[in-house]
Specification:
- The chain is built from 9 helices and 19 strands.
- By secondary structure, the protein is an alpha/beta fold.
- Helix 7 crosses helix 8 (about 305-320).
- The protein starts with a strand and ends with a helix.
């Protein structure tokens, strides 16, 4: 379904329930509706409704357009779920910035039905699994990616293997940082090319800081100038730059030592990437009678030889210390996911038990 914001009278009739939902939102936006109720994805807790104002959403959309150099008439591909903020904000950007939108129902291979010789988009946003699947399963679609002004990746952390793989893309690729409460992203991190970095840069007009836990707080027009306190532990480099270390509520307490699982995950992903493996993984703490919690590595359909497992353990020991070393490796086929395609850690762990 293609929607041109400049010609709403010529919008097509919806053929599916998903297209109906996208059209309903777009028509509500054009009608001037001032408040919208969205739901969090549920990746870090129980999904909850959040009311966002039109003014907040407009501020976010225009800031993204300004940052990425988007112009009226630039074509956008909307392939994220429009039931959640990431997909909804793709629609808002299209409507506010005048971007003709090709809207497709989310899938792991969003470019599968597009001919590279006949397709050109200026802008899109993916979850990591989508981009990974495109590069692995449909590499002939690379020209579509290369022609874009900007590609956003959000919803979950990008693995080291994916960051290496996406270096073949010529268009700028950015990791996003944000959440429903901040009306999508408030900071970007370049993932490819000579300016790739591990540091996020807050967008113009976004005020950031940390609390006593070193957890990030955010104030901006998109938050209605109210402070949003997160549970994300960061290394605050300066007034606009930060490194994302992990979530405070995911810390593993093993033998009285606190371990940030995201740091262990990054080391493990680098080892897997060096072995040519791109399977998804995460690190969690499972109950342990002696330690309280033991660190475990959970991989998706991942088979490791004893030598490969030992290589991961030694890499973690060298870089993060002995308490961070995973004591157990568990394979799950496949991971449970939230409706937005994020790994549902709690549901996956429940299946292990």
């Amino acid at each position: 379904m293609i929607l041109d914001p400049a010609q709403p009278a010529r919008w097509p009739i919806a053929n599916t329930a998903y297209e109906t939902q996208a059209l309903d939102f777009c028509r509500a936006w054009l009608s001037g509706q001032t408040e919208f109720t969205l739901h969090t994805s549920g990746s870090t807790g129980t999904p909850k409704p959040i009311v966002l104002t039109r003014t907040q959403m407009q501020a976010s959309a225009h800031l993204t357009g300004q940052t990425l150099g988007l112009r009226t008439g630039d074509a956008a591909l909307v392939c994220l779920n429009v039931r959640y903020v990431a997909g909804i904000m793709m629609l808002v950007r299209g409507l506010e910035l005048g971007l003709p939108m090709t809207i497709i129902e989310p899938s792991s291979t969003p470019l599968a039905d597009f001919d590279p010789a006949k397709t050109s988009f200026a802008f899109t946003a993916f979850v990591p699994l989508q981009l990974q699947t495109i590069l692995e399963s449909t590499p002939d679609k690379l020209p579509i990616l290369n022609s874009m002004k900007a590609i956003l990746i959000g919803g979950a952390a990008t693995s080291s293997a994916l960051e290496q793989a996406l270096q073949v893309i010529q268009a700028p690729v950015y990791a996003t940082y944000g959440m429903t409460e901040t009306v999508s992203h408030i900071a970007l991190r370049r993932l490819n090319g000579p300016t790739a970095t591990d540091v996020f840069t807050a967008l113009a007009g976004v005020d950031i800081g940390t609390d006593e836990r070193n957890c990030l707080h955010i104030t901006s027009a998109a938050t209605n100038f109210e402070r949003v306190q997160t549970n994300d532990v960061v290394d605050l480099v300066d007034a606009v730059h930060f490194r994302l270390l992990g979530r405070a509520d995911m810390v593993i307490n093993t033998g009285g030592v606190k371990v940030q699982p995201e740091q262990v995950e990054r080391v493990a992903q680098l080892v897997l990437a060096s072995l040519g493996l791109t399977n998804r993984l995460f690190v969690s703490g499972l109950p342990d009678e002696r330690l309280g919690q033991r660190v475990v590595l959970i991989g998706e359909q991942l088979a490791l030889s004893p030598d490969q497992w030992l290589t991961i353990q030694e890499a973690v020991r060298t870089q993060l210390g002995p308490y961070s070393v995973p004591r157990e490796f568990i394979t799950v086929h496949p991971f449970s996911e939230t409706p937005t395609g994020k790994i549902d850690r709690n549901a996956t762990i429940a299946r292990i038990h």
